[in-house]
Amino acid sequence: MIKCVFFDFDGVLRHWDPGIYGIEEKFGIPLAAVRAAAFSKDSVQPAVLGEITDEEWRSNVTARLATLYPDKDAQGVVNHWSSFTGELVPEVLSIIKECRAVTKVPLFSNATSRLNQDLKDLGIDDLFDYVVNASEVGSAKPEPEIYHHALKLAGIQPNEAFFVDDTEHMISTAVQLGWTGYLFGTAARLRAALVDAGVL
Questions:
Q1: Could you give all domains of the chain from N- to C-terminal order, each with its CATH number?
Q2: Which one of 41, 51, 142, 193 counts the least CB within 10 Å of its CB?
Q3: Is 99:105 a contact under the CB 8 Å cutoff?
């Protein structure tokens, strides 16, 4: 019996529309270059593991872009990018609320120290029973340690956990550890999977 449904954040509940940025048009630096500076593993991993703060990570991204584009406003780019908090997916939000009426629902995210502020800004800081944030745990999906930590917080066994994520290797680890894993595609299919699992 499923006693807890864990939801990933980005790519499941929160969506990022690259069109909202307009970075290349405003600043002359390609969005792909900003993404590479921000999200290459050596850049973002220390922030996700809590070794540096979100602010330090963004400062490092600014420095990388300034080196690559010395004649452009790298700080302006990072300030602009940082001003967005993404958009919630209404259908997934509804499913989470349905799940919460019948079981525990934590957020399970490889996020930086900015996560709690983003949840507040999006008006969902009270949506989840609790938050498992990699940067607070010091371990990130797909490392088994953070999955063990999540189970301990929930006070459940692996076979009582249902996990929704949009990245296959995050799900693979969960399944190997005995969880029920669901690779997110659409809200409709997710809801059907939760019905099949006896949650809804």
A1: 4-15+86-196 (3.40.50.1000), 18-82 (no CATH)
A2: 41
A3: yes
